[in-house]
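User: Hi! I have a protein structure encoded as tokens and I'd like to know what sequence might fold into it. I'm fairly new to this, so please keep things simple.
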């Protein structure tokens, strides 16, 4: 122990001197952060060298355009069991570990759930000793930073690399080329037809590797992020050919900018060509490097599917399918049939949405121009697939037209992904059923065995152990720490529901966490929160289907009731919101403005001061989520049934003892099934009812508006200069979305049921002992939602890992 401490100290001092040239007394926290990370990186490197020697089993490559990995310093310290040593050493040298931790940047390389899921999966791979690696893009700027002024969202570039990034290793020696555009030439050689892409624009792909370690395991996997750079030869040629130096720079910038930005998830068509190129860049670079490693082993290509799995996270990396075909056929000389067998046996695909606007398609013309050889292969895949379907369903033109990969000038990426994979999964039971019965029905009929469910999960280590140390301590004292390795062991907490002392402690932990969040809010917004109130939280991307509008309309109504002293058994509330709106998503931005407008009135009204507070925390991120989630009492999961594929925030909050107020949508249903009706607040239309109303046109929002006085008041406040708004215009589009355009997301339809459950929450919270029991039940059953379980299930059913 003492030896360990001395070694650590020496390494730290050397690193500090090396990176700053300073003596310890002059170093800033930021400099100490750099030195500390350097030391930890050394420990990881040592582990890595051992890990690589051990690796022999099947490897999974998880391709994703997004990885929201969050801060790694705390994770590394904890997983390497170095926290105490680091804390002691730093203290001796006059630093505080807490101050150093806040120097870490949070790489925002994702939009939300899909990217965070990928990060949780990496954590589980390594912690389960599985060889699972991430393949992604190293965006120079992550998702924009959100800044709110006067209720309006401004977007600032996320310069996460400005201070350098401590956990990555640039590997220029493993750089390779990715080709865009040009023409495809064919020629015959040795009686065989060959294809070659000529006059192409060549972009150099340079990998940056981030080691991923497991919790108390020896496995070190890799997250490989690719960055675009100009190919030096090309730049030279350009420079030689063109006398104007600035043109060369422009050209260079053009190549580099390929990996500049992460696209927000509902960005419009503008600039989408870069997104198309990004998708191909990711898969081409990723697969080329994996295959060149495979070739070094000198095995037969037919062995590939038993050694490598390529998983595509949504359709964004679906060009992997034609790219793998291209390499196997054009570069390795395999026949179409051999290549197709290898491809379909090694690729699998997860669908993350049935929202129509989010199902990816690409204009045929763009693919033809920018990926000419890929386009030819897609045409051929489509041709062969349609023929196969023709044999299966002779004469059924309609069906085949709907199944086709290419139709109406568009390439349907979900169709490409399904046809080119051996397994397709949804991310929660309901979502998978919707895929099978509705969205992908014809594919399910054609390939019933290919479809399966894999309900999402979250890393209980990050979202409980690291994010909520006081709850972790309490749980450990009660049931030991086996649950850290086997999260289902959390179920051992169940008997404690009859232990009043434990429940008291649980309540105290929640209160302490609320105080920590309140301190943060006071620092950021200067607002003092009532920590005895219910912390009622909705934090996630701002979107019509997630229905932040339902939440805020309810608050508008509550305000009137409280003002008029009509609330009977009301428990004071602090409503907390956070989330980004995509820059081009006008409606979502209006919602932020509305929340801010209502907050300004409510927070300044002395009459409701102790009962109602509203907070919008700007720039939602992994790090902010870690502050908020331990403090949640009520977890708002309000999506219109059928729309939220799974949700994962719901699981994080449940695991931290929050009670869910949610629709029967996505994984909320599975949370309901686990905790039982007593310990959750479900409300609203079921998926079946939503589908019925969508088909029948029986829903008339105006009828509800006219018959329900509460709704009429709340909706009218959007356009009436009375309690909240300053003019009739600002929120008229929200008003019209509800009444003129008939409330696409059934906000008004679900309002009554939502209010009832909110009232029930208010009265239940007053029986604190009972509430604490419910909270405990949620924690006890949350082990089911650990991503360890999810990954174990992918591993056995899809990837067939040992
Ligand atoms: C769409 C697009 C379209 C254009 C440009 C970039 C981009 C990026 C992301 C997306 C949306 C992908 C779908 C998605 O994020 N789904 C979410 O996945 C979570 C993890 O499975 C799940 O919990 C959420 O319910 C689901 O909405």
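Assistant: Happy to help. Inverse folding works backwards from shape to sequence: for each of the 802 positions I chose a residue that suits the local structure. Here it is:
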């Amino acid at each position: 122990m003492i030896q360990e401490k001395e070694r650590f100290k020496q390494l730290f001092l050397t690193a500090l001197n090396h990176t700053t040239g300073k003596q310890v007394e002059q170093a800033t926290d930021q400099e100490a952060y750099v030195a500390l990370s350097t030391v930890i990186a050394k420990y990881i490197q040592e582990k890595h060298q051992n890990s690589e020697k051990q690796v022999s089993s099947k490897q999974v490559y998880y391709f994703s355009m997004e990885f929201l990995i969050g801060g790694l310093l705390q994770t590394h310290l904890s997983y390497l069991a170095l926290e105490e040593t680091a804390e002691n050493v730093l203290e001796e040298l006059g630093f505080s570990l807490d101050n150093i931790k806040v120097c870490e940047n949070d790489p925002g390389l994702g939009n939300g759930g899909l990217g965070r899921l990928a990060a949780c999966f990496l954590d589980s791979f390594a912690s389960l000793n599985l060889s699972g690696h991430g393949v992604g893009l190293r965006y120079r700027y992550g998702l924009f930073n959100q800044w709110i002024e006067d209720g309006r969202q401004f977007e600032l570039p996320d310069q996460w690399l400005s201070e350098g990034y401590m956990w990555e290793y640039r590997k220029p020696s493993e750089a390779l080329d990715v080709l865009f555009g040009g023409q495809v030439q064919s020629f015959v050689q040795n009686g065989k037809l060959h294809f070659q892409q000529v006059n192409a624009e060549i972009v150099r792909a340079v990998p940056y590797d981030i080691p991923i370690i497991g919790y108390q395991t020896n496995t070190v996997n890799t997250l490989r992020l690719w960055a675009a750079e100009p190919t030096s030869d090309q730049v030279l040629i350009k420079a030689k050919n063109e006398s104007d130096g600035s043109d060369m720079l422009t050209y260079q910038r053009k190549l580099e900018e390929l990996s500049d930005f992460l696209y927000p998830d509902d960005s419009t068509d503008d600039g989408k060509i870069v997104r198309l190129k990004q998708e191909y860049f990711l898969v081409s670079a990723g697969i080329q490097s994996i295959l060149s490693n495979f070739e070094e082993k000198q095995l037969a290509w037919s062995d590939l599917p038993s050694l490598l799995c390529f998983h595509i996270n949504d359709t964004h990396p679906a060009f992997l399918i034609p790219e793998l075909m291209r390499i196997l056929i054009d570069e390795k000389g395999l026949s179409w049939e051999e290549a197709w067998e290898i491809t379909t046996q090694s690729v699998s695909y997860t669908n993350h949405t049935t929202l129509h606007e989010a199902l990816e398609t690409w204009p045929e013309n763009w693919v033809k121009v920018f990926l000419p050889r890929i386009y030819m292969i897609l045409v051929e895949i489509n041709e062969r697939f349609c023929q196969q379907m023709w044999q299966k369903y002779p004469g059924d033109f309609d069906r085949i037209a709907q199944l086709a990969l290419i139709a109406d000038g568009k390439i349907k990426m979900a169709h490409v992904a399904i046809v080119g994979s051996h397994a397709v999964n949804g991310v929660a039971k309901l979502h998978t059923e919707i895929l099978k019965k509705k969205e992908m029905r014809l594919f399910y009929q054609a390939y019933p065995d290919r479809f399966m469910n894999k309900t999402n999960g979250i890393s209980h280590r990050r979202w409980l152990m690291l994010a909520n140390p006081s709850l972790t301590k309490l749980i450990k004292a009660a049931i030991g720490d086996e649950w850290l390795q086997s999260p289902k062991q959390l179920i051992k907490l169940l008997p404690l529901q009859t232990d009043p002392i434990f429940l008291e402690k649980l309540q105290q932990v929640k209160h302490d966490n609320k105080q920590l969040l309140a301190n943060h809010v006071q620092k950021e917004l200067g607002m003092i929160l009532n920590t005895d109130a219910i912390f009622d939280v909705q934090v996630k991307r701002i979107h019509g289907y997630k229905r932040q509008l339902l939440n805020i309309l309810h608050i508008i109504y509550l305000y009137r009731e409280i003002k008029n002293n009509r609330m009977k058994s009301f428990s004071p509330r602090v409503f907390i919101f956070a989330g980004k709106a995509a820059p081009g998503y006008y409606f979502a931005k209006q919602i932020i403005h509305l929340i801010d407008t209502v907050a300004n009135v409510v927070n300044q009204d002395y009459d409701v001061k102790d009962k109602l507070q509203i907070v919008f925390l700007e720039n939602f991120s992994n790090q902010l989520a870690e502050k908020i989630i331990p403090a949640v009492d009520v977890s708002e999961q309000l999506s219109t049934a059928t729309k939220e594929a799974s949700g994962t925030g719901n699981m994080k909050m449940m695991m931290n003892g929050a009670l869910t107020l949610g629709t029967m949508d996505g994984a909320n249903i599975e949370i309901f099934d686990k905790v039982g009706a007593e310990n959750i607040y479900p409300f609203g239309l079921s998926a079946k009812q939503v589908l019925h109303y969508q088909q029948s046109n029986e829903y008339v929002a105006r009828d509800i508006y006219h018959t329900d006085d509460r709704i009429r008041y709340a909706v009218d406040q959007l356009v009436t200069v009375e309690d909240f708004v300053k003019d009739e215009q600002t929120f008229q589009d929200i008003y019209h979305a509800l009444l003129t355009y008939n409330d696409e997301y059934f906000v008004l339809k679900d309002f009554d049921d939502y209010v009832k459950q909110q009232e029930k929450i208010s009265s239940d919270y007053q029986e604190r002992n009972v509430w604490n029991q419910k909270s405990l039940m949620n924690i006890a059953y949350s082990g089911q939602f650990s991503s360890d379980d999810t990954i174990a299930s992918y591993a056995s059913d899809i990837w067939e890992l040992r």
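A useful reference point when you look it over: Residues 1-51+72-105 form one domain. Feel free to ask if any position seems puzzling.
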